[in-house]
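Lab notebook: predicted structure, single chain.

Context: the supervisor wants predicted structures on file for every construct in the current expression panel, including those that have not yet been purified. This is the next one on the list. No modifications to the sequence; it matches the entry in the shared construct table.
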Amino acid sequence: MVFKPSMPPSTLAILLKHKWIDEELSRSLYKHNYKESEELNLAVKNLVREYSLKELTNNRRTYAIKVLLIDLLVRYKLTNGEGSIGIFLSRTGAGNTKREQYHLLKVNGSILGEIVNELQNHELLEKQKGFLGHSTKLRAKPKLITFLKEHHISIDKIGAKVWPIRIENQYGWYEDMDEEKAKGYGLETLNKMNTLLAASSIQIGSNNIYIFEKRLVRLFKSEAETATEHYGRIHGPIWQSVKREYRQFIRINGDNTVEYDICSAFPALAYAQSGWDVTKSAEQKRKAYDVNCLDTKIKKLRDLVKLAFLCMLNGESQDSAVKAIAREISKKRLKYILPEGVKARTIVEELENKHKNLQDWFYNCAWKELSMLESNVCVDVISHFANKNIPVLPVHDSFVIQEQYGDELKKVLIKSFEKEANYEFKFPELLVERKKKENSYLEEYAKDALDLARLFKETYKNKNKNKLFKT
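Prediction complete. Output recorded below exactly as produced.
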């Protein structure tokens, strides 16, 4: 039996070549709540009785069935019945941290194998046995989906109880941050907003976003030498993976929305920390990423300059930044659209000349401090609206909110930015801009944009499966 890929074979081959996805691995399941669903509990009991499955003699077996049913249901719904999950059914396979994600749920591989065989015998799922380190592929049959539907198990009812503050450990995995420490990083705020988002109707075009696609998680990296945390950005929700031109079609509780963005956040923060007010010069603020050697009206080239700026903040020397930028140019084949004679070093040198007041910030790992400041702005904004029971959707340094709260969002965003920058700007209104709504014809393609975002979040490969991304 051969499963059809849930995307065109040519696209699949390209993604695999670049190691962007791993078709062997199952989706992350730890976001689901398995114990508190009365419908799911009843469905499992009836499943055992109707199909004469092995009795639920212990909690481990009950738990394994719940995990498997939810995983199959979500994958079936998000791929229109074509997608399969990949798991290892050996005694140690489900607990092998280097192979897949079921270890997060502590599901016993041998118990899971028994359940899979029983469901296959009753034609509730399809199975393709793995080989030579490849996972076993499983896909739900319509018969199983109908059974779950009869028991009111719906994908839009699958909840998300996730610890919203996570930190990278010494092995490069993200794990839950200690509660006492997490309280100082917005634990209560994120819990409030996650609860509010779960109860809100959020759509892109006419397409609903599911509960488990809404949750916010703040990720930190740690410095072993100083035991300090940095980064702190908010990740998780599906709208962060939707292209910007389609976010204009987001609706919250049936209302149209508006998006406000912090203009050139890193340069503005760095200048403020150096005692320079970028808003005094509208040209300097609005064109922080403009360089003479490139036409930054072209999005790919503007993104390249942004990356170059980050490499200069992150690198230890000009040479290391140049090498990183050159790799990006080669990886994305940008050399074909670069003007003749323009190389990575050309871009770096122009940025150095343009931002002479930031020389102390370049090649000094300054991105750690700037990322933390930017993420603190994000948490401040979320906190303000969470306390007023108003849902707001963060996209790192921009925010989507119902149109009637747009002016309030702008004021809060400016106030929070000035607070974190510890600087009072002369023309603070230049710090943020409202995203224009254009190309309304794109709304008919909003579903495709959402499906593409889901595809990447469903199949994205991590260095290890304890990472947050991609659900």
